[in-house]
Write a structure and sequence with these properties.
alpha/beta; Rossmann fold; six-stranded mixed beta sheet; 15 helices; binds flavin-adenine dinucleotide
């Protein structure tokens, strides 16, 4: 029997477990350990609550859990409740699928002012992550600056701009919906260092901005290269740029919508000013060099804003005993191999890029590497020894069956039209399974 511990129950963790089931059949026992009592990582706490069809991928992960040889072991923080060295003693292979949950620091003066928020915190708040339930973002802000030109920035803007009715069918948590109902926002500004041809916003998600009830995208035609240049873009990117051009040509029809979502291209935030809380952002105009890198022009201007949300990427927190690549904010690895018997997948391996599906080949490749390295396994004590260790330490774990009870309780307490009302407190989650 091969014993595999996977740390993290997000897409990378579940695809790895599925791959192990397919590769080893009954000759493997997989424990998927997560610090939360609820599974699925960013599918639950990252993917936008108004994108339910994307969240439905978790049904595939449930099937993996229905096999007897895959266990969910929730409510266990690796690095606190149990160390990597201990897990390596018990399992033939330990796979870190811990994602990249920390915001990359916004390294400019003033970034510690009240009202400056990282996207991990803001997204976690509206998605009910227990770490961020008490965030209390300043929703009385009339002007919000969003730093970044990727899909997370788009999610954040859309959530800020939607009306209550537009959240019908979503699982946005009650505290966020109540807060957003009181929102005073009038202007949301995306700041991106480069231009329309360099955005990292995918077409479907970008197109949604043109369909909002009370908000209209605003772009400046001067920022665009010659329309003929669009032909050189890859097809997805070309579609995104077409959306941006359409936002400009359709602007007159959307004038009645009160909230502006402004695309400020060639814009590099250099300082945040305010007396205790954010009052303005100092921005430097940029231009592109011949390698399409942005450089400051020296021209500066001010953007008044009362909240700044930085959507500039994420980092994997280090874990004691695991080699770490500080520059890139992820575990040091070669094709997922860290040390003998220790592996990483997903965002913990690659950094925060790609879609949910990108984690699938990662999971399958790591299981091939494990098969090569451990052969038939069989030298480790596995899950029985882990259970003994947790019993000795009084670590209270949550099983997949427990999670299904928690889920039932979340469905039962949903507001009308919503699929669930998530528990945002770990104690409430645990109480719901009893
Ligand atoms: C805001 C946002 C929106 C997104 N929207 C989309 C989308 O619409 N479509 C799409 O295709 N992709 C989307 N993505 C990308 C997608 O979510 C990621 O590709 C995917 O979740 C990465 O999977 P992962 O398993 O590596 O990490 P995660 O999903 O982050 O899972 C990591 C898991 O590890 C656990 N963990 C962390 N540390 C420990 C520890 N020490 N001990 C135990 N457990 C631990 C965490 O609790 C978590 O459950 C989005 C990402 C973000 C941030």
């Amino acid at each position: 029997m091969r014993h595999i511990a996977i740390i993290g129950s997000g897409p990378a963790g579940y695809y790895s477990a599925e791959a192990a089931q397919k590769k080893f059949g009954e000759e493997v026992a997989v424990d998927i350990i997560d610090r939360l009592p609820v599974p699925f990582g960013l599918i639950r706490t990252g993917v936008a609550p108004d994108h339910q069809s994307i969240k439905a991928v978790s049904r595939r992960y449930e099937k993996t859990n229905l096999g007897d040889n895959v266990r969910f072991v929730g409510n266990v923080t690796v690095g606190e409740d149990v160390s990597i060295a201990e897990l390596q003693d018990l399992y033939d292979a330990v796979v870190l699928a811990t994602g990249a949950p920390n915001d990359r620091a916004l390294d400019i003066p003033g970034s510690d002012l009240k009202g400056v928020i990282g996207s991990a915190a803001f997204v976690g708040w509206y998605n009910g992550h227990p770490d961020f339930k008490d965030l209390d973002p300043p929703l009385d802000a009339k002007s919000v600056a969003i730093i970044g030109n990727g899909n997370v920035a788009l999610d954040v803007a859309r959530i800020l701009a939607k009306t209550e009715d537009e959240f019908a069918g979503s699982d946005i948590v009650g505290h966020a919906l109540d807060g957003l109902k009181q929102s005073k926002v009038e202007k949301i500004t995306f700041l991106g260092r480069r231009g329309p041809h360099q955005i990292a916003m995918t077409p479907k998600e970008l197109g949604e901005l043109g369909q909002l009830e009370r908000a209209r995208p605003v772009v400046d035609g001067e920022d665009f290269p010659d329309p003929g240049d669009d032909a050189m873009l890859e097809p997805g990117m070309r579609k995104s740029v077409t959306h941006l051009r359409n936002f400009q040509s359709e602007a007159a029809d959307a004038q009645h919508k009160p909230i502006e979502i402004v695309f400020d291209f060639f814009a590099m935030p250099v300082e945040i000013r305010g007396d205790d809380t954010v009052e303005k952002l100092i921005v430097e105009r940029t231009e592109l060099d011949k390698d399409l890198r942005s450089t400051g022009t020296g021209e500066r201007y001010e953007l008044e804003c009362q909240m700044v949300i930085s959507c500039i990427g994420y980092r994997t927190p280090p874990i004691e005993g695991v080699p770490y690549e500080h520059g890139r904010g992820r575990f040091a690895n070669t094709d997922g191999r860290i040390l003998p018997g220790l592996y990483c997948v997903g965002w913990a391996r690659r950094g925060p890029s790609g879609t949910i599906g990108t984690n699938k080949p990662d999971g399958f490749a790591i299981v091939d590497a494990i098969a090569e390295d451990i052969g038939a396994g069989g030298r480790k004590a596995g899950r029985a020894a882990l259970d003994r260790l947790f019993a000795e330490r009084g670590v209270e774990t949550v099983t997949f069956r427990d999670w299904k009870k928690i889920e039932e309780a979340e469905i039962a307490r949903a507001r009308e039209g919503s699929p669930r009302e998530k528990f945002t407190d770990i104690a409430d989650m645990i109480a719901a399974r009893d």
